[in-house]
Please model this.
Amino acid sequence: MSGTKYVVDRIFGGTASYDSIVGPGAPATSSQHERVWPEIPLEYRPPAPEIENAVKEVTYILGYLQRVLTPTPLPNDDLQLMSDYLLSLETRNDLTAHVLQQVDARTNIRALTRILLKDDTTYEFKSRATALAKHWNGIELLISKITPEEILADRPVAPLKTELPDDKPAGWQLDLGEARTAEAARQLELLNIEKNRCIKYWTTVKPPKPMGWAPADGDAWKKVPRADLENGDLFFTPYFKPIWESYNMAHMDASFWTDPDNTAEEEEEYQKNRSEKHQSTMFSLEMRKARKDHATSLGYERVF
Model:
């Protein structure tokens, strides 16, 4: 099909000529042959051992806060405990860029900013969640502007708060307790089992594809051969950064795949684990439905 090509140059409408944006590109001989970006992003893989504990706890905390606080907590929910959970996220010193990627931190904390409370003066959940979301968004923005080598190398993330409330002792850290620590560990174990299945699918059947590529700057189009720009294979250039969808969206195809190398017993065990993970998801949805019904009974409209 011939004719002028266009690209969207504004979020809500508006286009620019493809040729005006891309131009001729760089000479084909300037194309690099060493991979810059991994074919499978780090957040699609199980966490590295050095960040596993942080990923385990933060995943559990974010999930529990969402289940209890959104859209509105029930009258008998322990809001002091939820405040302590949020305080842990605000003050943790074991967060890194890769931890935030693994737990999809920005998406999950944004959900807490939509809490519905008639009186939020005691714990200030909404304003605290909003501040944390802004803090983590700022970190993501800074990371997006550095080199591929720096992005792929993990780096510590400063906590939002360095001082504890007066009612907490010096050095306070959240203790999930034995039962919830075990629950968090099992939750991560089930997720890692699923991720390992997905990785095998992606490496042997069909690799994941980025949703798009973000140019590092306005000159990026001139530094990459036009043929590479048009076929979308920019894993070999530092001038464009892959934009990946969340793991929860990306794994759908792979989740229905059966590993042909598995024995019947191994596949049965995998399906048991998958069923256990599904049951946990259904329990979370039941908790959320109870709180949505409660929000509606309080007069809130268009509760999501």
User: Anything to note?
Assistant: The beta strands are 6-8, 15-17, 212-215, 240-243. DSSP finds twelve helices and four strands in the chain. Residues 21 and 218 are 9 Å apart (CA to CA).
